[in-house]
Amino acid sequence: MKVKAMATGNIQYCCSYLSTEKRTLQRFLGQAYICLRQPHKSKRYYRFYLPVKAFKKILGNSSGWFQLKIYIEDVGAFVINRKIEGKSLGIFVPKSLEKHINPDRRYRIYLLEAIEIADTIERHVTIDYKNNRAFIDVPLWFLNRLGIPKRRMILKAILEYDNGKRKITFTTYKGKGHATFQLPVAKRYPHKVVVRGVSQYSIKDFVNDFEKLKPKRYSNIKLVYDDGLKLIVDGFYIKPLSYEVGTRTHKVFLKLKLGRESKPVTIYVLNSGEEIEVYRILGSKYFPLETMKIGDKDLVVAYRDKRTKKCHISFAPIVDLKVDNNAAIQIIGDVKIVNSTDEEIVMDVTLNSIKWSNFLAEMLKRIKEWYMGKRSTNYHYYIAKFGEDIILEFLVKYMKCVLLRRNNHPSEHGPDLEVYDSSCRRMIIEVKTTTSLESLNQALREAVEQARGRIKYYHKYSVIAAAVYVSKTENKCKIILRKIYN
Q: What is the CATH number assigned to the segment(s) 121-201?
């Protein structure tokens, strides 16, 4: 039965919510003195205590959060949000009802209504039309409901609006009061949103998001958090000089300083919850990062200037470079130049024995399956890819080139490799690989023929033909690089 509130004062309502259960009732909770507390000259309030067992007698053994409508005899009714736990419940009286209180009187107190609060909350949106921004405030009682500790931290919220559309937003919580979240930028903002969840966001969460959301061109870059934050590039650990995590508008960022103190390179990783953006910071300007590679004891960083549409390269000397044992082992070992001219370089290269033996075993397995009728094995493409890996590693490691694009599938159009050299000039490389020394010159002729066919499309860039011979008897290979002219 619904009972009308016997209120003589104003009823103070809190924010709207999504409830799971509503109970309309009028039950006597007990009697209590309402005492005045004044911890500071400028701060005073009235408060009374009731035993928790009185609430549990009415509501059952539930220890969750409730919106409670309390009525104090001859004073009035008001609404509070509290968690039913502990031995006693301290309740503050709203200022609008203080004028009706007599501290010397013992009041009878009733529970008029109880609504169990779910883990979601509906909030009105405050829109700043001048700057095209929108905000919501998540109240302190709801943060307490979710167990958010009262300290400075980054919070992540999942918002739902526009017919079930969900968005992620971040904010820096100061540890007291409500939390203010900015909505993702939109042409039209909703008037209300449903907050589906608020949680703490740590550096480990950022690392996990980076692995899930990073673009394909950053596949050689990893973040790990194990006894501190580390960056892995091409299988090498790099310990940052320093790092900072914070929020910017509705996004969360990670700022890394790499290299040496005298000449650091600053990388800025921005996470919107849906995509990852990486920038190279120079002064106060942010340049989109193309890629990062490990050179000869240097971190090679390629970034693009959107204004001039040109790519630039910077080098960060790495003091302590450690190999990631879980990453791919480098293929190339010792390199010996047999012959070198302005047009052609011939080299003998020692390969890593583990990588070479794994390649040989997989190649023989694929050849066997091919002749058994399993044409999908494509062993010749596997051999070609291994040769491209060798050329790419040589260019990055010894010529300090940066990979721009790679043709990863035989059906794709375009050159095998596109790189930037140390002077930021674009290079096009066509690679042919063979496992027969007698066929090396034939492979070079085919690479030259294909490279010459690229000149009319890439006449502004350097075009190189590469032939690779991989021995089947020892971990050796021979490389021939020839420059192609118009």
A: 2.40.30
